[in-house]
Sequence to fold (507 residues):
Amino acid sequence: MEDKSIVYLVGAGPGDPSLFTLKGLRCLERADVVVYDRLVCEYLLTFCRNDAELVYVGKETDHHTLTQDRINQVLVDRALQGKIVCRLKGGDPFMFGRGGEEAACLAAAGIDYEIVPGVTAAVAVPAYAGIPVTHREYAAALTIATGHRRRGEEAGLCPGLNINEGTAVFLMGFENLAAIRDDLLVKGWREDTPAALIYWGTRAEQQTVTGTLDNLQDRARTAGIGPPSVLVVGRVVELRQKLSWRERMPLFGKRILITRAPHQAHEFAQQVLDLGGEPQCLPVLELAPPEDLAPLDRALEQLGDYQWVIFTSANGVSFFIKRMQERGIDIRSLRGQLAALGPATAQALTRHGLQIVFTPDEYRAEALLDGLLGLITPGSRVLLPRAAEARNVLPEGLRSAGVRVDVTPVYRTLPGGARYKQVLQEALAQGQLDYLTFTSSSTVRYFQALFDEKELAGLLGRARVACIGPVTASTAAAMGIRVDLVASSYTTTGLLEAIISEIQNSN
Fold:
């Protein structure tokens, strides 16, 4: 079926991108146009098509990028142009998200639309703070209200639940906190009722302040938190002391920049999420087949003549196998002994049922060379499929030992990331990034190429720079980028272990 014009009103969830729904992800990946809010985690934008138009319509207190009427018009206009539009909204579209107004506007214009619910912050944000909004012994009912009101309306309109009966949750509950408190007291809630404010819940900035209706505002002021915050009132707040879990995760509160190519960035980002951190992706490079495939095709035709085939990256394996499949070459034609640089490369080969003879203990070309010199006899023919820009340590060392080496580019790196540059600049300028990670010399070079020297010096700020190994670190240092951490195990897992170790030692 052909894609037709439609608007998806999609809930992005409360902030943690791993709470995004599968249907929401499918809509985001299909969209020609993505219209997104301030509360949407920037990482989700890396799942957009490269050619998708990104339209920011974020709203802050007393500052709206576009009015709601203008946002409605953007949705209508793009749909009438025949576009697939993803309206990406924080939380759930129909939970104080004005999704109902947007749907009504689309219906009036005769435009097809779908509602894709999201995980609401009213439940998820307290959960991430260790506060269940209901509990058999503490709260049998839940009331959800908005802390915002139309101009001229009173900020009250609070639920009339008794403290022993339930929980009250106020989305956007910071600005009118005093009025909400006063209204609850008028309706019979006690001054010593437990209450909590959760700032940027589920995001890297998450901070929770607890107290009572009487003292919560003073405590929030002392802690320096503001909007966006979710207010929770009721006895369930007492459970936070026992049930707090998010803060115990090793990367809690840390936002980590990932500069890898998109497909690898998502794998690395998942590792960050699993450890409680928040990834921010700036894919500074993209991978593409070599401009000239003839050398690779000649090597594939002669696969049976090679005594050894040496792979130095998982990307090299992927492009090599893909080209074999495109040419209809049986995987069993790969009869030579195989060597792999690092566990990721080895795993990429074993996924295809291939057996590896040698992997060095240290994941560097120098270590691979040292090991192979004791295994490959002079005169042997070796194929080295790799990136077009790779170092020449390995082929030159093997040739010096009398080995016949055919170096065949199977992919090349191209600059990328320009569409995310502004988001990165803002995050760095505001001190929102804790670690910048580089996983290859190419990521360093393409990162630097996005900025002039003055911009780069100003942007690094308080962010720490972590490199996957000494070769990458050496490239960064040569380009004037300060290096704070170098992984001892040259994998993304090793890189995160180095970051976690530093965090733990600094606490």
